[in-house]
Amino acid sequence: MEQSKVVEFFESKLGKERVLTDTPVLQEYATDITGLRMVQKHFGWESDSLAACVLKIHSEEEASEVIRFLNEEGIVSIPRTGGSGVCLGLETPAGSVVLDLSDMNEILEINEENLTVTVQAGVPLQVLEETINKKGYTTGHFPQSYPMAQMGGLVATRSIGQFSTMYGGIEELVVGIEGVLADGTVSKIKNNPRKSTGPDLRHIWLGSEGAFGIITQVTVKMFKKAPERVMQAFAIDKFGDGLAVIKELMQAGWKPAVTRLHDGTEAAETYGPFVKDGESIMLFISEGPEGFAELEGKAVEKTALKYGARPLGSKPLELWLVHRNDICDHLDMYAKQGAVADTCEISAMWSDIGKIYDEVIQRAKKEVSHLVAVTGHSSHSYVQGTNIYFMFGAMCAPSVEAAQQTYDQLFGIIMETTLKYNGSICHHHGVGRYRAKWMKQELGTAYTMLERMKEAFDPKGIMNRGALLQQE
Amino acid sequence: MTIISCIKQVQDLDIVLKDDWVVGNDGLTIDIDYANRIMNTFDETSLELMLRLKDEMEEVRTKVVTVGGLRSESILRKAMAVGADEALRIEPPFDLDFRPEKTALLLKEAVAGEEETELVLCGRQADNGSNGQTGQILAEMLGWPCLTMVTDIKKIGNEYRISRLTEEGTEHLHAAPPLVVTVTQSENKLLRMATLKAMLTAKKEGIRVLESEEEAPSDESPSYTLEKITINRADKHCVFLEETERSSRTDQLIRILKDRPDNQGD
User: Fold this and answer.
1) N or C, where is chain B less crowded by C-beta within 10 Å?
2) Which residue from A340, A84, A99, A50 is spatially nearest to A213, judged by alpha carbons?
3) Contacts of B21 in chain A (CB under 8 A)
4) ipTM (interface predicted TM)
5) Whole-prediction pTM value?
């Protein structure tokens, strides 16, 4: 169908005001906030692949009707909520249709008996958190995108929050979920605390990145706000020793809600007056019911001291709590300085994570000619391993192509090294379009399962084509 | 020909927590030692403008100067890592807080020591003291013209084309060197980033240190005496516009603005 006819059809269904076709708007919707695009925009990048239109969806019924039409016509659709993705997962193929669910922003039910809250996909996480805070609850979910992200996108990208070691990632928070499949079928997974009724279907939505359907509504857990909190920071000579501290804590059964280890470069940059040259810094927050935080705090202190860590008190945590999401206020700061800068998070088992960290840092320093910095921190830990959140920046010639080349080189080093040690190439940002090229290596023989799921749920390949699975 | 950028190390005030703005028992100090030490924001812009001039000009020597203790050498090294050719640190002979005329005098010694200097750039003010006078007093001492609130500067022929912010807008003018400019922030003038390699090289570079023989001013004739510090807490009152219709919402906003206690009615 001709693009103009598609637009006309939706204008007749939704009204002109909910069908956006202005070029600047389509440019805005043409990508997400991936660091690569930030700097490329600074060098003049504009998308040459714009959507036909953006639809402001207001209900699940509308989403169903719209997607049924798009499926029949074979038109690629990009579901979208907060737009805070960082893996090019929201980039629009030419002539595609963006389904913007951010107007579906109602908190439908706060259930204080079961401690659940049911929301539409476009509810901003910050609004949800602040709303239930007033009743004494928390979602326990605090990703760095907290000021920007909305609930549908958080589920679709398998988000995780800064307090995850205690509360878990979004996969542990989702209770029930409702969505629309590619052919318009509405699917509802009811709320239950646990069940044994075949595969957990929620996991088809979790991390689906819009490739299987559109998430319209989710029910997530809420928690009583912890009455007590113990915050403590430590300086430690070596990053590897810090990893050993965290490993010992995790394997002993402790779960400090915030468990972070920043390497020497990050420690100096953010906590300079607290640390000596080269020292890493560890940040812990323990919280829970009465008596728990103090008990866990003592275990944290004992373990840290055993490895020669130096107590720094709670001030670094106070600073972290206030400033942890500051970057959201000036996302393009590095781009404005002409630097290719971004973050990349991977995970691996305890046996391998230190090797990945060391090798990435060494390789980047050796191979990237105009490197500004490459740093790393562990921020989400488990009994079996942890993540490393790499942050990197490099200068390049002021052109879109040079930025791409520099970005590919740095990102490639992290991906290659991670795969070499059997780590996972995405810990919580998702795959998007950028990391899809490594997915076959990531999943190995299991890749077939993902392909078959895609074929089953989206036989015409209209759902966010190119994201999650590379377009052949 | 030499261009000098005067830079200063300050504490990063953006990081300081709201509740930590507490005046000590002496009434004169605030303990914010945990704040990282960084290059003053306006000085970063002034340094970037100098580097942009260097990018465009041939046969120019760029120099950064700071007045500060050994710890402040880190900003000089950063400046060299992003492209400044030379660095000079002037060891302060006495406490310079609230003595912009003394700081200017020390900077004048450094400028006077460079025969071919034709331009000195200073940040318009430092984040901590916020005196906003050093650059202008320096110009006075040198007998050079001073242009303030500068946002851009280019060399055209033998003159500089300067853009400066005024209350009415941006003023563009030509000025013949030598001159002093004080720089304010503007869009897309963030200081460029230093590569790791350049930082490592800069760490090994020598920094000339000037020990001034300037004598401490007598207590009888201080330029300023810090009497006490008080904290002004900004009260934020957020009012949500509850009307749903756009026109009613506008009316509501107008009502709120009119009813504000500080509204003088004009």
Assistant:
1) C
2) A99
3) none
4) 0.85
5) 0.92
